[in-house]
């Protein structure tokens, strides 16, 4: 995810290293089959090398082919003295201890690929390993200060490896310049490495400005070394080599000193262990290299091929590679035990193989098939011994998942999740928490062990938890002082982990959105959490999310069913569907709306109920309610309430109805006809009952009223009072409407004035009209 400039720099550095390999390969392709200097001493053949034939002869040889070499320049004066035709010989007089001399004859023969391997193969292979480690370190921590430092260091060393054996006479003139530039860079590169390892220095955390003067010195030094090569280290460049050796020793000493300081004063165990590993790699890897360079170039007390100073760097390479294992460093105990078992197994197999080879050269093949069969089983048994809990992960994960699936609330699922660390990894504690939303309006938390989290509502505001939601990765306590990601918030992150008594914090993500976390406490064994355990906990978290989603879905379904049952008391099915589509009863909040209200009741019902049996009264009411109920549903009215023989219907609420006035009028006319049919049967039974209705339209406050467990849908306002009074004032079979209703009815409806009525609750007479059955 780096910027375009960062990506360009990354590929440019790769190109620098690959250029060195290209130079080395091109040189071998040109040299194979060509004459080159070689020699045989006491029956042993040694690889030819122009480096020994020219540069090193200045210090080791006194004369070449009878010519005194004292003070002669390697490239311009020594190389021309060497015989170059295959079959010719060169005689070198070498200095021996105690002043003795010895003449050695060097034969000129054809250069072979075997010679190339002896001369440059080892340094080229080591350079390739540096290149792999540098790129690997960078890919583990891309675009981080540590990643850049490791990459630049390994690119410089990796590119130098295949070109160290190329010297003055090389056909690739770019080789010495390339080598000089990299040598100048390496002289000062120790300062960059010291700022990035074993932990990122505060100067480097503030930005890359501190690197500008370091890289300026590297560039200048490389150019000067290239010029010194052309001048054959004479004149003003005579002291360039000693100066370079002193600078290399000084910058390497800065790196070693910083590793030592961090090793002694590390803020956490991981930083200390990283520092000790790098310190060991620097002392035993970089130490011999810079010491030999200092002794050769500055003190002049030893003459040694520069390639030999390159090999100890392999120890530093191992240290650098090992530090990329990150938090697994702390689990060295298990790694050492595993290595011991592997070493014992390999040793036993070696002994068996040697015995078989002594019997017959091909008898060792008998080990192949048994080994292919037994080794995986040996590895499985070793894992079961080293990680006894891990072998039971499948059964434990199924058990935990089954328990979560059986729970009926999110809190119960969270409690199982909090207990998972102790069940899977013998953790001393575990904390699982959900933020408001998925965890309910106030969030949820579950604790396993003696952990006092305090107010869980404040967890969402902590820096570490926010960071895990951003990175969508787990956070390890051991990484706080190592990873640049935590550089500016180390103390806050450590306080968060202390509060949760956690070594690792896993984010709980729902569709890449942070909804909570799982804190893993310290393990009773003292081991760190490895990748296999983290993957297992990730599975457990997903099981918990699925269980909570299932519980929430069931709760929503149950709530929707209850809501539907409640709405069914007031609204017809088609209106309920519309209400539920808009969000259910929660959307029916109290609001002021324009509505049309219809009131109706039976005339003479009180006398009827006093004179007839209750069974007859209830049967008549059921017949009456059935008839008017069908009409309410037909015209999509909202039944506000039934009160004995009376009822109230509202139009234009809760859903919008543009023709709400006309709907009320049509329903009234239809009900009037229905009740008229019922009256014929009632009269035959001797029931003196009739029907009166009132309609008014206007603004009212609509919404649920009541309390939890007993709610009604109500419409409150003057419009309901006037419609109710009109219904009371209506004669038998009469439909009374207000002037506003009459004005809003479309043409085709017939009405007649009923005069101005004195209605209870109204100070002034109210004009009313009779809606006639002859209307549309």
Overall description:
The chain is an alpha+beta fold. Strands 12, 13, 14, 15, 16, 17, 18 and 19 form an 8-stranded mixed sheet that branches. The chain has a 6-stranded antiparallel sheet with strand order 2-1-6-5-3-4. Strands 8-7-11-10-9 form a 5-stranded antiparallel sheet, with helices on both faces. Helix 1 (4-31) runs antiparallel to helix 5. The longest helix has 38 residues, at 531-568. Mean pLDDT is 81; it is low at 39-59 and 168-172.
Mean pLDDT: 81
Helix content: 40-55%
Structural class: alpha+beta
Question: What's the number of helices?
Answer: 25
Distance between the termini: 73 Å
The major pleated sheet works out as: 8 strands, mixed
* Beta-strand percentage range: 15-25%
Total E-strand runs: 19
What's the oligomerization state? Answer: single chain
Low-confidence stretches: 39-59, 168-172
State the shape: elongated
C-alpha-based Rg, rounded? 47 Å
